From TrEMBL:
This is ABC transporter domain-containing protein. GO terms for molecular function: ABC-type transporter activity; ATP binding; ATP hydrolysis activity; lipid transporter activity. It comes from Arabis nemorensis. Keywords: ATP-binding, Membrane, Nucleotide-binding, Transmembrane, Transmembrane helix. CDD domains: ABC_subfamily_A.
């Protein structure tokens, strides 16, 4: 790597933030078509809503049945001339069309009292005789109570009319004067055509006792909207109750929940006369308010209630002034109206489920992106190269927020341009603030939930279940509960704590206001409606959950990615505690450790102790008695992976770690790179503790992991630009360092540097990983089998690059290639069973553990004994290490023989018997490794 590429020091917060921002923008540019498809999803759904609305407009809103009726009137008075004039108006309309016509003089309707349906009425005074239910002639029950029972009973007798005479010349006056009319229909939204009169059911006349012929037909209204009804008599039953508590009990026995038909014993009305007397009229009235406006807590329509007030007022006046005193309640009517048109906005009605899906579709995108970095270990490798939590969180959050905001703006623009009332009628700033809060909560939840998943496929499946499940549950469960006024409001608020329901509730309010605004020719929701629309509670819930989710996500991220203790805010980095081994096992390990202690290991330990006493250690890497114990699982004992490792590596030195698989090399590297915390011991990198100062350590560290951790859509050049910026390289220094890095690992020519890394071969990826670890001339580099999978020419070239880079760097390298270890490493340590067995440069190790020659002789089988005698003559302490089919190998101690003596002995043997082949070799590093590893196997029982 080029020296010119080194940065002036650790990268600042803004420099690292700039690096990841540029990387994210580049990554986004590589996935531009995915983003286009994502942005087009709300457009497609809006188009679907427009198509549905167009269908409703043609088949419902513009239907002849839903507009003022018209007729073709022949005004020429010439029969059969075929000429007529289209004239529209209420007189040419059906009853259904009449409500859409201009009505300058609305029809007056007689006031009606609301009573229960025949099959649900209270049976009688004792509620025991149910025969009236079969005959549909149960009485209409009205309850009374008060402080003065005698007065209350008088008023109850005055309540109902005893007889009537019908005067057809003034029907309304007759009905107001002599008849108590009632209906089982609740009042509709408008009273231009009272449902209680125009419906197919009868009008009831409540009397104390019904005569035998108790039905009477009457007509009301002007042609062609005149209505002929049958008035039927129904008995009224007044019952005294001792207290209002009893009345409450009776009312709730027959409480009709929603549209349920299961209610029985329903009471028509009840009066509590309280302290009423001759000088004071004070009364409470109970009436059926099952259907009411849940926000204002009052009935939707009050035209049924005044009749109850009129009844008790008349009864009191008759008590005071005699039976001839009356307050006439002649009719009820609407205000005059102009011609109207049905404005059924179906898009607003079904908008909540559609737009819940649209907004929540961002969740899988964000979640899979976060889990992808986790699954591919990209977050870890970025952290190891100096990207701290602060820049990562700030840029990642801002990146997702910018994408989400653009997505929401496109949604609002699409919806408005194609004419959806859901967007056009509601205040734009109100909508944007709501969506903005929702996407912030969504991003925070994605960060929080990403800690649960380790696979992109699993995260994606769970996210889409959340998306579509939230929409369907919101439409078919939550909306039903919202509109059920009997459902406790506190439970609605509790359900809104689920983020999908809080989003749905806000969209439901937008939908409701847009639908009503379109129906009545008004605007939708405005800021002045903030408190009345329940949006205040929705906003509060979203803001609180946003804050809580963000804090929780950051806290869990600290624990999972940094390996911190769950109580790291209250404790120090880790709690030094003794190994969880059994005492007897500890003693055994200690004894074995003392037995296996070698002079070179002891010298290294002593050197480390001296370095630890210095205020600022001269060596880049110092490890003092590092231990790592993994807790036992499934009944297995704890596993001691690293058993008290002491090591120092200075700048300009490459230290090679050799060892069989499972020896503990990876655990040691993981501790030094911050992936796991040591159980005990200390590790210093440039004087910084690997437990307490790992964030600072990362700024001067490079890592080449065993498996290549790369973005498949980024090119080799873009990878190096990103990691170079993390190492504080800028401008021309960055460009020069990237170019020289690519050239050094043979990735510069032929357009390879600008190809996506996903199209690289395994060897090319390996070379890129080495270049990443060395860019910026880090002070400490860890390489895990850097040349694995390379051809001989590329491997030699890579070794040259590493050897040149180590001049100003401390490198710890693990490998299984003895040739690589000899070429690159200044010192080697053979690591077996969690501890160093020996340490030194390659020549010293071969001299120390390989103090013998290996003699190989191949003869016929009958001369094997002669060969053994020959070797014994040359070296009495020779040891046979191999024997098969006439071929034998012997170890000859170097201090006992000379090479010339061996040659002379073999030449002499050739004159006595046939020698097919022979050879004499010095000990290799591989022989040393095998010998040390085998020697340590006898102690594995204690590991």
């Amino acid at each position: 790597m080029a020296d010119s590429g080194s940065g002036s020091g650790p990268a600042s917060f803004l420099t690292r933030a700039n690096a990841i921002l540029r990387k994210n923008l580049t990554y986004q540019r590589r996935n531009i078509w995915s983003n286009v498809r994502l942005v087009m999803i709300p457009f497609y759904l809006c188009v679907v809503l427009v198509c549905i609305q167009a269908l409703v407009e043609s088949q419902v809103n513009n239907s002849v049945d839903n507009q003022c009726g018209c007729a073709c009137i022949d005004k020429s008075h010439k029969i059969g001339d075929g000429k007529c004039e289209i004239i529209c108006g209420i007189e040419y309309s059906s009853r259904k069309q009449g409500v859409f016509c201009a009505i300058p003089n609305p029809q007056p309707w007689p006031p009606l009292m609301l009573i229960p349906r025949p099959q649900t009425r209270a049976i009688n005074a004792n509620y025991t005789d149910k025969s009236c239910m079969r005959k549909n002639n149960c009485p209409v029950t009205i309850l009374f109570t008060g402080n003065n029972q005698s007065l209350s009973e008088i008023l109850s007798r005055n309540l109902l009319r005893r007889s009537f005479t019908m005067n057809s010349s003034d029907l309304l006056f007759t009905l107001a004067n002599s008849v108590l009319l009632a209906t089982t229909f609740k009042a509709s939204a408008t009273n231009y055509l009272d449902e209680g009169i125009v419906s197919d059911t009868s009008i009831y006349n409540i009397q104390p006792r019904c005569p035998p012929n108790s039905t009477f037909p009457f007509s009301i209204g002007q042609p062609p909207l005149n209505i002929t009804k049958e008035m039927r008599c129904v008995q009224g039953l007044n019952l005294w109750k001792n207290s209002s508590k009893e009345i409450n009990n009776e009312i709730f026995k027959g409480y009709q929940k929603g549209n349920s038909d299961k209610a029985i014993n329903e009471i028509a009305a009840a009066y509590d006369l309280l302290d009423t007397n001759t000088t004071n009229f004070n009364v409470n009235i109970w009436y059926n308010a099952t259907y009411k406006d849940e926000k204002r807590n009052r009935p939707i329509k009050l035209v049924r209630v005044p009749r109850l007030v009129n009844l008790v007022s008349n009864a009191y006046l008759q008590y005071l002034h005699g039976p001839r005193t009356k307050i006439l309640f002649e009719f009820v009517k609407e205000m005059p109206k102009s011609e109207t048109k049905l404005r059924l906005d179906i898009a607003s009605l079904i908008g909540p489920i559609f737009f819940t899906w649209v907004v929540l579709l961002l969740m899988p995108v964000i979640l899979t992106s976060l889990v992808y970095e986790k699954q591919k270990r990209l977050r870890i490798i970025m952290q190891m190269h100096g990207l701290g939590d602060g820049p990562y969180w700030m840029i990642s959050y801002a990146y997702f927020l910018a994408i989400s905001t653009l997505y929401i703006i496109c949604l609002m623009i699409f919806g408005s341009v194609i004419g959806l009332k859901f967007f056009l009628l509601n205040d734009y700033s109100f909508q944007f603030i709501f969506y903005f809060l929702c996407i912030n909560l969504q991003i925070s939840l994605a960060f929080l939930v990403s800690s649960v998943f380790s696979k992109v496929e699993t995260a994606s499946a769970a996210a889409y279940i959340y998306v579509f499940g939230s929409g369907l549950l919101g439409m078919f469960l939550f909306q039903f509960l919202i509109e059920d006024i009997s459902f406790p409001r506190r439970w609605i608020i509790f359900l809104e704590l689920y983020p999908g329901f809080s989003l749905f509730r806000g969209l439901y309010e937008f939908s409701r206001y847009a639908f009503r605004g379109n129906l009545n020719g008004r605007d939708g929701i405005k800021w002045k409606d903030f408190g009345d629309s329940t949006m205040d509670e929705v906003f509060s819930i979203i803001i609180i959950e946003w804050f809580v989710a963000l804090v929780a996500a950051h806290y869990i991220d600290k624990i999972s990615s940094s390996g911190k203790d769950p109580l790291f805010l209250l404790k120090t980095c880790y709690r030094k505690s003794p190994s969880p081994q059994r005492p007897s096992l500890q003693k055994q390990v200690s004894a074995v450790s003392e037995e296996m202690e070698k002079l070179d290991i002891a010298q290294e330990c002593e050197k480390v102790k001296q370095l630890m006493l210095e205020p600022s250690p001269r060596h880049e890497i110092v490890c003092d008695n590092l231990k790592k114990v993994y807790p036992g699982r499934d009944g297995n004992p704890p596993k001691m992976a690293v058993r008290g490792l002491s090591l120092s590596v200075s700048s300009g030195e490459c230290f090679g770690m050799l060892g069989p698989n499972g020896a503990g090399k990876t655990s040691f590297i993981n501790m030094m790179t911050g992936l796991v915390k040591p159980t005990s011991g200390t590790g210093l990198v440039q004087g910084l503790d690997i437990c307490n100062d790992m964030d600072r350590v990362y700024t001067s560290m490079g890592v080449c992991p065993q498996h290549d951790l790369l973005w498949e859509t980024l090119t080799g050049r873009e990878h190096l630009l990103f990691y170079g910026r993390l190492k504080n390289l800028k401008g021309s220094d960055l460009a020069q360092a990237v170019e020289e890095s690519l050239k050094s690992v043979n990735l510069f020519h032929g357009g390879v540097s600008d190809k996506p890394a996903g199209k690289y071969s395994g060897g090319m990826k390996r070379r890129l990983s080495v270049a990443i670890s060395l860019i910026g001339s880090p002070k400490v580099v860890y390489m895990d089998e850097p040349s694995t999978g390379l051809d001989p020419a590329s491997r030699m070239n890579l070794w040259t690059v590493i050897k040149r880079a180590k001049q100003k760097t401390a490198i710890i390298l693990t490998t299984h290639s003895m040739e690589e270890a000899e070429f690159l490493c200044d010192r080697l340590g053979i690591f077996v069973d969690g501890r160093l067995q020996c340490i030194g440069n390659p020549k010293d190790l071969k001299g120390r553990y390989g103090g013998s020659y290996v003699l190989t002789i191949t003869t016929t089988s009958e001369h094997e004994q002669d060969v053994e005698m020959l070797v014994q003559d040359v070296s009495p302490n020779a040891k046979k290490i191999y024997h098969t089919a006439g071929t034998q190998k012997f170890e000859l101690p170097k201090e006992e023989v000379r090479i010339s003596e061996v040659f002379q002995a073999v030449e002499k043997a050739k004159s006595n018997f046939k020698v097919f082949a022979w050879g004499l070799a010095d000990t290799t590093l591989e022989d040393v490794f095998i010998k040390v590893a085998k020697t340590s196997e006898s102690f594995n029982v204690f590991s």
